[in-house]
């Protein structure tokens, strides 16, 4: 029996105080790239939007390593989108007692990362209950990394 495995994780940043147009200029450069390549691109670009997007990429990679046990070398940004958020409206005092409206736009940024080393479908007949019991994380039922040097042998006992 085949079961669909979760191969994508996401990080969502809401109400980031910049316009969606300025954030899209940066997000368009990193869409479809690998994790390491994205970090170098965002580190070298001179835009203010790079820092919140870099934080979201770090967060998505941490989510992938925690939920799926993924290695950072296998991560690719599969989807990255920027949506407009709410606009904060302020009034700036002007000459002769008048006021001028100031609009402070916000945006919502979503970064979706995919692990290219994982298969999308898993045959769950081969997964035994002993493998599920040995896994430390409940999300990684079929892919458990075992440390071969600390196996609880006689040298570990005091």
UniProtKB/TrEMBL annotation:
GO biological process, one term: translation
Gene Ontology cellular component terms for the protein in this record: chloroplast; large ribosomal subunit
InterPro entries (alphabetical): Ribosomal_uL22, Ribosomal_uL22_bac/chlpt-type, Ribosomal_uL22_bac/org-type, Ribosomal_uL22_CS, Ribosomal_uL22_sf
Keywords attached to this entry: Chloroplast, Plastid, Ribonucleoprotein, Ribosomal protein, RNA-binding, rRNA-binding
GO molecular function terms listed in the Swiss-Prot or TrEMBL record: rRNA binding; structural constituent of ribosome
Span of the signal peptide: none
Record's subcellular location: Plastid, Chloroplast
Function: This protein binds specifically to 23S rRNA. The globular domain of the protein is located near the polypeptide exit tunnel on the outside of the subunit, while an extended beta-hairpin is found that lines the wall of the exit tunnel in the center of the 70S ribosome.
Family: Belongs to the universal ribosomal protein uL22 family.
Record text on subunit structure and interactions: Part of the 50S ribosomal subunit.
PANTHER family, A to Z: CHLOROPLAST 50S RIBOSOMAL PROTEIN L22-RELATED, LARGE RIBOSOMAL SUBUNIT PROTEIN UL22M
Protein name: Large ribosomal subunit protein uL22c
Organism name: Cuttsia viburnea
Protein's gene: rpl22
């Amino acid at each position: 029996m085949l079961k669909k495995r979760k191969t994508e994780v996401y990080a969502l940043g809401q109400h980031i105080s910049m316009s969606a147009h300025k954030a899209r200029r940066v997000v368009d450069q990193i869409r479809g790239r690998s994790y390491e390549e994205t970090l170098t691109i965002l580190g070298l670009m001179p835009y203010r939007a790079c820092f919140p997007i870099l934080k979201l990429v770090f967060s998505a990679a941490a989510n992938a390593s925690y939920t799926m046990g993924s290695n950072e070398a296998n991560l690719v940004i599969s989807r990255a989108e920027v949506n407009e958020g709410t606009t904060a409206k302020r009034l700036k005092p002007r000459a002769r007692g008048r006021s001028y409206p100031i609009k402070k736009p916000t945006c919502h940024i979503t970064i979706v990362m995919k692990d290219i080393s994982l298969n999308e479908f898993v045959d769950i007949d081969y997964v035994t209950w002993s493998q599920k019991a040995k896994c430390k994380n409940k999300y990684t039922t079929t892919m458990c990394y075992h440390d071969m040097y600390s196996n609880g042998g006689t040298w570990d006992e005091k």
